[in-house]
Amino acid sequence: MTMASLDVSTLGGGTRAIARETLEILGREIQGSIVFPQDPTYADATLIWNGMMSKRPAVVVRPLTVQDVVRVVTFVRDNRLEMSVKGGGHNIAGLGLSDGGITLDMRHMNAVDVDMEERTATVGPGCKLGDVDHATQKHGLATTLGFVSETGVAGLTLGGGFGYLTRQFGWTIDDLQEVEIVTADGLVCRASRTDNEDLFWAVRGGGGNFGLVTEFVFRLHEIGPDVTAGLIAWSADEAEGALKLFKEATQEAPRQLTMAALMRNAPPAPWLPADKHGKPMVAFVVNHTGTEHEAETDLAAIRSFGAPWADLIQRKEYTAQQAMLDATQPKGMHYYWKSEFLSGLSDELLDVYRAQFDGMQAPANQIVLFHLDGALREHDEDDGAVGNRDAAYACVIQSMYPAGSPAADHNKAWARSAWQALKRFSTGGNYINFQTADEDSQRVAEMYRTNLERLARIKAKYDPDNLFRVNRNISPAR
Fold first, then answer.
1. Residue 54: which H helix or E strand, with range?
2. Count of structural domains, the chain
3. Which residues contact 410 (CB under 8 A, 6 or more apart)?
4. Close Cβ partners of 103 (under 8 Å, ≥ 6 residues apart)
5. Rounded to whole angstroms, how far apart are CA atoms 458 and 466?
6. Which CATH number belongs to the domain containing residue 310 in this structure?
7. Are strands 280-288 and 212-219 parallel, antiparallel or unpaired?
8. Which end of the chain offers a freer environment for a tag, N or C, measured as fewer CB atoms within 10 Å?
9. Which pTM does this prediction carry?
10. Rounded Cα gap, residues 328 and 267, in angstroms
11. Are residues 181 and 242 in the same domain?
C-alpha cells in the first residue's frame, strides 16, 4: 500500500490497491460519509460487542439513504471487493466487520415510524432493539425482539430472532411483514408474502446472504407499558428442586409468561448480599405480560419456593425489562457461546445440565434454558427459512472473560465441553445468531436442515457471485 492507495480485500481472497482519491470521490457521491483508518472516528466505527473478534476494515462507509447503499453496493460489486454490514455490531462472530474490506456502518439509518392505524413499525437497519421498544411503547405496542436492548434489529431479525414475546407471537420473523432490500445487482425491491415471495422467505432467517435490507416493517401487539418481570435467584444447593419447578412451570405456563433458567457463580451485583458473591446460584428470569393479578397467580409457586437470595420480580416498564440484562453483556468483553434447540426438558437432561457447574471457577460463565414453546409451532416448518418450529427451549452455553484473561482457553474449553455433554438432547437445530467464528458449514446446515437446499437456490438467483458473504454463508446452488 502506498500513501495514495489502500489495499482492500477482494472476493477472490486477495487484495487490490484502490486509490484513496477513488474512495474520496465515492464519499462525495453519497450523502453519508467515509471513515478511513487514520480518522479519529475510525475506532468508534469499528467497535463491536465481542472483543474477541479483532478486524480492521480498509474503510468504513456510513450511508444515510437507500441511494447511498445502492451506490456503495454497486461500487463494491464492480470492483469485486469484500463487504460487510454492521447494524448493531452485536454478532458474536464479529460479522459486522470485514477484515481489510469495506464495512457499511448503518447506524445513521435508524428511524422508527409507528403506524397506529396499521399497527406496524417501519424500522431502519441501524436501529437497536431499544430504539424500537421506546418508539412503540409510547403507544403501548411492541413487536417480538430479543432481550438485550443494544442488539441490532437487522441482525436479530435476519437470523430468526427470539425474546420474551416469542411464546405469544413466534420468532421475530413471524412479526415481519415486509422488507425493502438492495440486492447484489444494485436494485431496490420490496419483498413480502405477496411480492418477491421467495426473497422474503429467504431473508426470514437466512441472514444477510441475499441483499442489504434497508427497511423492516413489523407487526405490533398490545404489550405494556407495564409488565410483571425481573429475576429471582437461589443458592445452587437448591438447583435440583428449582429446575424441577422450572420444568413443571414451563409445561403449564400460559403464553403470556416467559421464563429462562440459568446457573452460574453469583456476580458482584448490588442486589445480592455481599457474602453470596462468587458462590454458585440458580436463577429464573421472568416476563409476564398479563394483568398484575394474573401474574401473581402464575408466579406464586416460583416466588414461594425455597429461600431466595434475591427476588427482583416486580411491576415495571417493559422497556426496563428489555434492558435488564444489558449490564451482564458489556461491550468489549470476550464471548464464546454454543447453542442448541431442545424439544423438552427430561430429568436426564437436567442432571447433565447441573453437572456442568460442579467445581466451575469461571466468574461469569453460564448456561441459559430459555422457554420458547408456543406460537412458533403454529406455523409450518418451512414458513420462513428459520425453520426449527420443533423448538420448545433454547439452550445457550455462554462463556465470558476480559481481554488478556489467563483463563481464556479454560473458559472456551468449558463451553465446548458443556456443549458436547448437552448436544445429544438437541432437536438437531441451533440458533444461527449464536454461531461463533470457528464453527463450520456443518453447523449452518444443522440450523437450516431441510430448508438449506431451497436457500442455496434463492442465493444463486439473487447473489450468484456471493457478494454478500461476510455472514454465516450459504453457497449459491450451482
1. none
2. 3
3. 361, 362
4. 45, 46, 57, 59, 60, 61, 83, 84, 85, 86, 96, 97
5. 12
6. 3.40.462.20
7. unpaired
8. C
9. 0.96
10. 9
11. no
Last residue of a domain, one of 76, 105, 134: 105
Q: What CATH number does the domain containing 457 carry?
A: 3.30.465.10
Residue 440: inside a domain: no
Q: Are 92 and 434 in contact (CB under 8 A)?
A: yes
Sole residue written with cell 474520496: 24
C-alpha 23: how far from chain center? 32
Residue 16, SS3 per DSSP = strand
152 with 270, same domain: the answer is: no
Can you state the percent helix, strand and coil of the chain, rounding each to 5?
A: 30, 25, 45
**Cell numbers describing residue 168:** 405469544
Whose grid coordinates read 474503510? 59
DSSP string, 96-116: T--TTSEEEE-TT---EEEET
Rounded-to-integer distance, Cα 377 and Cα 305, Å:
31
Tell me the three-class secondary structure of 264-319, residue by residue. Answer: EECCCCCCCCHHHCCCEEEEEEEEECCCHHHHHHHCHHHHCCCCCCEECCEEEEHH
Question: Is 70 exceeded by the pLDDT of residue 410?
Answer: yes
Task: Kindly state whether residues 209 and 264 are assigned to the same domain.
Answer: no
Write the pLDDT tens digit of every residue in 125-166. 999 999 999 999 999 999 999 999 999 999 999 999 999 999
- Omega before 125 cis (within 30°)? no
Cell numbers representing residue 341 in the block: 434447540
Residue 67 included in any domain: yes
